[in-house]
Amino acid sequence: MPKPKYLPCIPVRGTKVPVRPEWIHEVKHDGYRLIIQREGKTVRLFTRNGNDWTHRYPLITEAALRNRNTSFVIDGEAVLLGVDGRSDFNGLHSRRHDDEVQFYAFDMLVSDGEDIRKLPLSMRKASLQRLLTRRVDSIHAAPFEEGEIGPELFRAACDMGLEGLVSKHKERPYRAGRCDHWIKVKNRKHVAFDRVKDSF
To answer: What's the pTM value of the predicted model, to 2 decimals?
Structure first.
């Protein structure tokens, strides 16, 4: 069984969303963290713990193969979207809907075969946008907002019943393991707040 070459950057838990202009903010989807690795005609989906889930989510694997770029690595979250457009973790966890699971990409580690982890997040985001310019169903670029809007965005996410926000310093490189320039602030009223196995 192939082993992952790329380990995920893991956010630290925070209680306040950063308000400075050098931070970007992404809604936290309630799903499973995955790294998609494509090399030629081979695609692998690796979990945060290094498990190979390539055959679990066919829509994601097929979408990665349809991309014109044949050598890339992207980081994101596998989610099952409910009829209201929100992520349905219980449905995802049940395994009954594996053939419907989609992917929200929020970072890029390799572009056109080149390792770009040392580049700042702002440049990696730009590379990711280029990769997904021609949107292929089932892999989406995760939306984000920049700057001091973070706390306001967090309140809006909580009002909508979402899991929370992940804020990231846009000038920092990608680093495997626990990292203090990624900060996750959870909605305390969300069912995921006390979940033992944190998927992000």
So the answer is: 0.90
Tokens representing residue 93 in the block: 């966890």
pLDDT < 70 stretches in the chain: 1-2, 135-136, 190-200
- Dist. CA 45–CA 103, nearest whole Å: 11
**Catalytic residue status for 28:** yes
Active-site residue, from 3, 28, 41, 168? 28
d(CA 122, CA 169): 9
Identify the pLDDT of residue 195: 47
CATH number for the domain harbouring residue 146: 3.30.470.30
Asked whether residue 15 is assigned to any structural domain, the reply reads yes
Task: Tell me how many domains the chain contains.
Answer: 1
